[in-house]
Amino acid sequence: MRGSITLLPGDGIGPEIVAEAEKTLRVVGEVFGHHFETRSEPMGGAAIDAVGDPLPAPTLEACKGADAVLLGAVGGPNWDGGGPRPEAGLLRLRKELGLYANLRPVRGWAGLEDASPLKAERIREVDLLFVRELTGGVYFGEPRVEGDERALDTMVYTEPEVRRIVRKGCELAKLRKGHVTSIDKANVLASMRLWRKVAADEAAKHEGITLDHQLVDSAAMRLVTEPSAFDVVVAPNLFGDILSDEGAAITGTLGLLPSASVGDEGPGVYEPIHGSAPDIAGQGKANPAATVLSVAMMLRFAFDLQEEADAVERAVAETLAAGVHTPDLGGSASTAEMGDAIGARITKAG
Q: Cα–Cα distances in Å, from 239 out to 83, 133, 163, 236, 309?
């Protein structure tokens, strides 16, 4: 199989972790007989410094023409001076590619239970997937400031917007345990009553899917008290943003959490959920595991390479279990050493 991937190293530790992800792709290609063509383009602060635009036209065209996009990280204090924001490039990229679903898996890792703020037995069996609606809701409403003492934002959802994100959640749940939890605040908000109605109607069309409705506040509590009870969690933009960050926090580290932003057609964007960490950039301390796991999501969803994705995820788990940890996990392994260790286990698996 041949595939084309546009790499967006971005800012801070982005180039370091993307380099290890590219190494992973090379190993997967060698072991399983695939060829991945990679092309690196500037984005974020690096692109602002180069051409004054966080998402230059050539970068956007390279992304549109690829099978998948791998992003490192964007942003940092260097671009806080009131000019173009690096993050604006990411928002534009999502819009241009029609990426309406953000996927964030959260799982417990053997040997790292002590990193979690929860009890070991509570985090050990966690394996859930957040499916966050990405292009609607209050973040894309109509903000208005009225004088110095009143401001408002609108929260709008349409039937097609709700239906497509719930459909995506159901399709993903069929690959897992078949259980979907739809998050809303239907007891208070009219937009969320529409959400609940459409979610129930769409889920009923998917054989083998069990749907639960849960209010966002009780879901936030349950993520702490019973996180292993969740399988696929489908949520509106605002609630999904907050709950997925809570899910990240219960693992105890951001260094192991990948994500994917996908639509119905065209390339998706795969990236770790952590930031650019400019304080450790260039020091070889960054944990590449989340970016490598984002590669696994890319293999699974962009290229339908399930065995290869499993091999990458298994290699990360074995590397962690063997005690190869970067400083964020209490170890001393460098970024490249962890990347090499993961690659060696992929090779061994083949």
A: 29, 9, 17, 6, 29
Q: Tell me the C-alpha distance between 211 and 232, whole Å.
A: 10
What are the tokens at 204?
Answer: 């009923």
> Mean per-residue pLDDT for 27-31?
97
Q: Which domains does the chain have, with CATH numbers?
A: 1-107+255-350 (3.40.718.10), 113-252 (3.40.718.10)
Active site residues: 139, 185, 217, 241, 245
Kindly report each contact of residues 166-171 with a partner whose C-beta sits within 8 Å and lies 24 or more positions away, as own/partner.
Answer: 166/198, 166/199, 166/202, 166/203, 166/234, 167/202, 167/206, 168/101, 168/131, 168/234, 168/262, 169/131, 169/232, 169/233, 169/234, 170/202, 170/203, 170/205, 170/206, 170/209, 170/232, 171/206
Other C-beta atoms closer than 10 Å to the C-beta of 145 total: 9
Name which of 347, 273, 274 is nearest 315 in CA terms: 347
pLDDT digits (tens, 9 = 90+) for 101-155: 999 999 988 888 888 888 888 888 899 999 999 999 998 888 899 989 999 999 9
Amino acid at 87: E
CA 15 to the chain's CA centroid: 18
Token pair listed for 124: 């050990």
pLDDT in tens, 149-207: 999 999 999 999 999 999 999 999 999 999 999 999 999 999 999 999 999 999 999 99
For the record, the structure tokens of 34 come out as 């695939």
Which residue from 12, 9, 19 is spatially nearest to 79, judged by alpha carbons? 12
Q: Using alpha carbons only, how large is the chain's radius of gyration in Å? A: 20
Angle of helix 306-321 relative to helix 14-32, nearest 10 degrees, comes to: 120
3-class secondary structure, 95: helix
